[in-house]
Amino acid sequence: MTRRQILIFSLGLVACVAVSWGLVALVKEQRPTQPARGGAVMVTAEADIGGPFSLVDHTGRRVTDADFRGRYMLIYFGYTFCPDVCPSELQTVGRAMDILGAKGKRIVPVFITVDPARDTVPVVKDYVAAFHPRMVGLTGSDEDVAAASKAYKIYARKAPGTKEDDPDYLVDHTSFIYLVGPDGKVAALFRAGTAPEAMATELARIAG
Amino acid sequence: MTPLTPSLGRFAARFAALSLALALALALASPAAIAAGDKPHGAMSPAAGTVKSGIKVSAAWARASAGRARNGAAYFTVVNNGAAADRLIGAETGIAKRAELHSHRMAGGVMRMRRVEGGIALRPGASLSFAPRGDHVMLMGLKTPLKAGESFPLTLIFEGAGRIRVTIPVRAIGAGAPKPHHE
Q1: CB pair distance less than 8 Å for A192 and B109
Q2: Interface pTM (ipTM) of the complex?
C-alpha cells in the first residue's frame, strides 16, 4: 500500500465519519413542525394489557376494577401537573363523551394518576370535574398506583434532569387511551392525538 | 496489510472526494437551518398578531387550568416575514415561576417533554405553529390558575427581533385553538 493510497483511504474515512456525524446531527435537530399526530384507532382483539387494580376515587372511596364490570371504562393515565398532553387527551375524552350523549351511558371516563405524591384526592376531584361531569379520578398509594400502571404497561418516570426539590416537576409517561370492556378486558386503544369525532364514532360502534 | 489494487485505489479516491463534497454540503447547510426550513403555509391575517422586525406572532391562546393544576402551556404561531434568519430563544411571564420553550417527542406511546436547548430557528419565510402535543411555551408554577375569558402577558425573546410582548387569551377547556384566519 503506497503512502498516497493510505492518505486517500484515511481522507475517505474521515469524510465518512464527518458525513455520519452530519446525518446524526440532522436527524437529532429535525423537529416536528406540526403537533405529533396519532389519529388512527387501534382495536386489539385479545391484548395482553389491563388487569386488576385497587385505587381511591376522587370522592375518597376505594374502588377496584371489579366495580366497573358491566360497564365500559375509557381510561387515561396522566398527572395533573402535566401542562399540555394530559389536558389535551382528557379534553378529547370529554368531547367524545359529549358527542356520544346518551349512546355513551355505558361508558365511564376514567383518569388514573401516575403521580400520586401530588395528585391527592381533592386535587384529582377538581381536575376531573374540568373535563367531564361523569369522569372518575383515581389515585392511591405509590404501591396501588404502581400496580395499576404495571397492569396497563404504563411507563412513568420523572423527566431526567429534574431537580430533586422542584415541586413542579414533569413526568414522562405512556399516553394512550384504553377502552376496557364490561368483561374487564381492553377492547380498544386510542393513540394520543385521536380526534374526538373519530373516538366517538369508534366508541359508538363498540360500546353504543 | 495487502496492497490496494489500482481499481480499489481509484474507488477510494472517488469515495473520498464524494464524501468530502457531501460533508462540505452538510456543513454549509447547518442542521439548525434545515430544521427551520419548513415551507410557509396558509395566508396570514394582516390584522391579527404582533409584528416586530418582520417577526409576527399571532393566534395566541392558552387552555384554562383544570382544577388547581400548577403547570400550563401557551400556544401561538410565529412567522418570520423579515429578510434575516431569527431564533426564538426564550419566554418570560409574571404569572408563573418560569416560562420555558418545550417540545414533545412521542416514542412507543411514551410522551417525553423536554426543554428546547438553544432555541428554535426561524428562517426567512418560516412559519412555526406552537400547538397542543407539539412545541409550546410551558408555564411552570402558575401563581393562580388560568381562567377562561381572562388573558395574560407573555414576552417572547428572539435573538434578532428582541423582546415581543404578546397577550395570551385563556380559552375554556374544550374550546381548543382559535380558528386560523383565511382571507
Answers
A1: yes
A2: 0.73
